[in-house]
């Protein structure tokens, strides 16, 4: 019998040969705009999901420390046994109020929230229709359920409508989409989706991980961006990006849905509850973003500055005015070389290429934060221009 290592080794070699091996750069400092790598390099960080700059916010850290002393490091149990504290209930209420929903339920991550939703809600008599470029967690969550499954072409409403017509007798029809697609910074066409959902008596589900807390006029996510708060039937999102950057996810919607998830959702029932310091830090974040739009406005300003300056310099920037700003390069090796040269200039960015993105669509995905200063943005832009000219990505 072959050893496990012998079975795995060819697959690892194939990944390396394909040029898709993922190296992890080790950070020796807190997650923030200016980071220190383990090799001693200091860099401006332009590739974290730290949209509001809360990962190293002193008020949030203080709230976590207080909770650690008051409530302990963890619960050592799942919620329904002895793993629920008052702060868990309080955070769920704040999340529901923030989204203008009846209730919310916490998970260890949004991946778990997506894994726990579809299997619990949908039966063989139901149909789920999923955008083909949805996040892996949505795809995996849908795989677990027994509903009839359809994938519609990316943001293609004609194809979605055709597939809705194919399932007239379903008990429930659920349209599932990311609110913002993280590789491109593009937004789902929610108004059109709502129209089709109403026309064909379907429900809507949105994963709003790359929108919650900072996208839309009040930071309420993609439905806020389209001035249609309250229109989505089910929202899943994360506490691990804009909302503190630690961990955790949630589902928010009707009380009936949340009650069903508490009774049947396997990731919820069989995973330890979120640690008190994580809950407290997320609760503090909810207070900060509810009381003020200061961080949101700074993020919008920084995003506009970067996008405008890069476009003026001749770069092709993808996305819909979102802080995810993919700098389109095209060639995979060129994107990797570009990113390496940026690190040498003290700008931490990562090149993305196939199979993470389509072939010949390699890019450097820049992510803007409210914690970036104007000088930070200009420093990054200048580095992009210098290297872009050197590598022939833009004209000299």
TrEMBL record:
- InterPro entries the UniProt entry points to: 2am3keto_CoA_ligase (IPR011282), Aminotrans_II_pyridoxalP_BS (IPR001917), Aminotransferase_I/II_large (IPR004839), AON_synthase_class-II (IPR050087), PyrdxlP-dep_Trfase (IPR015424), PyrdxlP-dep_Trfase_major (IPR015421), PyrdxlP-dep_Trfase_small (IPR015422)
Q: List, alphabetically, the SUPFAM superfamilies matched.
A: PLP-dependent transferases
Superkingdom of the organism of origin: Eukaryota
Domain (Aminotransferase class I/classII large) spans: 43-383
Task: Enumerate the cofactors the protein uses.
Answer: pyridoxal 5'-phosphate
| Keyword Acyltransferase in annotation | yes
Q: Which UniProt keywords apply?
A: Acyltransferase, Ligase, Pyridoxal phosphate, Transferase
Biological process according to GO? L-threonine catabolic process
A GO term, aspect molecular function: glycine C-acetyltransferase activity
User: Is this entry keyworded Ligase?
Assistant: yes
Write the Enzyme Commission number(s) for this entry. Answer: 2.3.1.29
GO CC list: mitochondrion
UniProt xrefs under NCBIfam families: 2am3keto_CoA (TIGR01822), PRK06939.1 (NF005394)
The entry assigns this protein to a family as follows: Belongs to the class-II pyridoxal-phosphate-dependent aminotransferase family.
What protein name does the entry list? 2-amino-3-ketobutyrate coenzyme A ligase, mitochondrial
What is this organism's lineage?
Eukaryota, Metazoa, Ecdysozoa, Arthropoda, Hexapoda
